[in-house]
Amino acid sequence: ENAALLKAIIENAIDGIITIDERGIVESINPSACKLFQYEPHEVIGKNVSMLMPQPYRQEHDHYINRYQTTGKPHIIGIGREVTGLRKDGTQFPFRLGVSDVNFSGRKIYAGFIHDLSREKEAEDKLKEYT
Length: 131
Ligand code: HEM
Fold this sequence. Notes:
This protein is an alpha+beta fold. Helix content is 37%, strand content 29%.
């Protein structure tokens, strides 16, 4: 069945996948994203996605979403951005964020795709030490 196939793909994806509603409330989070942010699904679902980011983004994120909804002008959607995530233990990590706008059964949701860049950043920093 198609829905089961899609579920299996999301469950086994290497990258983190998080969906939010139009107010920024987390509706789903896949195992890769749970591992990256160190949370269990129930600790994140129903909460604002801003809990997964450091300041000043945490404070501004609702505004970013509102601005997109009122102006229709994207800053990350369809573009991508390197951003910083906040883990449960308080440490931060860099990742590539992709966001897509999804029309799902008559309402709007957003899907965020999280590609960890920790290793690349570490290698870059090591290289800088020697130059
Ligand atoms: C917009 C940061 C995660 C959905 C933005 C903007 C920033 C940002 C800085 C506005 C960009 C600008 O105005 O130039 C972050 C950070 C995250 C994060 C630091 C770390 C966890 C997510 C996730 C989703 C998401 C996981 C979706 C599931 C959106 C949406 C917008 C937005 C819908 C507005 C549309 C747009 O500007 O294109 N975010 N975000 N964000 N973000 Fe996030």
